[in-house]
Amino acid sequence: MKVKYVFDKISKRFISFKHHPLTKQNPSKALFRYVKFNFIQYIYNKPRVYDWIDGLKFYAQKGDAGIVANIYFRLFDYEESMFLIHNLKENELFVDIGANVGHFSLLAAGICKAQVIAFEPIPLTFNKLKKNIDLNKLSEKVSLFKIGIGEENSLLNFTTTKDVMNGVAMEYETEVVSVEVKKLDDIPTVKNATFLKIDVEGYEFFVLKGASKVLKSEELKFIIIELNFSTLKFGHTSEEIFRYLSSFGFIPISYDTKNKEMIRLESFNSNKFNTIFVKKDFFKC
After folding, report:
1. pLDDT greater than 70 at residue 1
2. How far is CA 229 from CA 79, 109, 272, 273, in A?
């Protein structure tokens, strides 16, 4: 039974390698990296340093879902990552809400040379994020905050047993840690943000409700936000979030990475977890 599970998982990965822009020319090589990483981690699960793109590096071990896929895909979340690289300018401000272990913060600071403010509330994940920033000598570009972002200034319980996929805990969850949560609007250093990335495991609506001043800012151009079924556990839908962002003049797009073109969508991207939103004034087809 376990052999079949492993075979099915490898087969699904191979299919994904055949479709990803950076691995489709040689999916077998990507599969080799995938198998090698998992074999090494199976023998001894500990963080190791991996070379990435443009001289960046990161620590990764099994369970670090926010960054480990870059080992075999080279650049995971490809469309969103390339959009960031092509559109975020040097010394602009990138705000990373739910920074995880640093995929987008590393790209913003290391490649775009932007200033970064990164929020990661889970202590264990925050420590991994800090190690990745320090590894790349980006501490002067990246300001790290071990707090959550939400609708009100308060304390919230976060789960502790889901590796880098931890998030705001439900009432029935018991293995939790209490963390300070602040409204984005009450953090003065983010008021001139050019670009937001929001990935908070279903808590996105509350982040946005506490960020109305930031969303109204003339400087804010772009948002990458995770929208999927996880919002339902907190009583909100992706459609509701889409309408809320639309009320601030943001439109959803897909991104043609080859031609560097923004393609307007009718609604949020239901075919993948992330959707890119662009303020109407900055939409370029």
Report:
1. no
2. 21, 30, 11, 9
**Has residue 230 got a pLDDT over 90?**
no
Contacts of 135 (CB under 8 A, 6+ apart): 49, 57, 58, 59
Q: What is the reported pTM? A: 0.95
Domains and CATH numbers, the chain: 77-282 (3.40.50.150)
Q: How far apart are CA 226 and CA 202, in angstroms?
A: 8
Largest CA distance in the chain: 56
What whole-number distance in Å separates Cα of residue 206 and Cα of residue 152?
A: 8
pLDDT tens for each residue of 171-229 = 888 888 899 999 999 999 999 999 999 999 999 999 999 999 999 999 999 999 999 88
Tokens for 216, please give them. 């109204």
DSSP string, 191-223: TT-SEEEE--TT-HHHHHHT-HHHHH-SS--EE
Instruction: Tell me what pLDDT residue 285 has.
Output: 64
Number of residues that this document lists for the chain: 285
Which of 1-10, 89-98, 221-230, 238-247 has the weakest average pLDDT? 1-10
Q: In the structure encoding, which two tokens stand for residue 256, read together?
A: 């043609």
CA distances from 31 to 34, 91, 192 (A): 5, 37, 42
The residue written with tokens 């950076």 in the block is: 22
What gap in Å lies between CA 283 and CA 118, rounded to an integer?
25
What gap in Å lies between CA 222 and CA 224, rounded to an integer? 7
Opening angle at CA 97, ends 170 and 273, nearest 5: 75
Could you tell me the CA-to-CA distances from 76 to 144, 161, 170, 236 in Å, in that order?
23, 24, 29, 27
Q: Could you tell me how far CA 161 lies from the centroid of its own chain?
A: 19
- The helix-helix angle for 27-43 and 2-19 (nearest 10°) equals 140
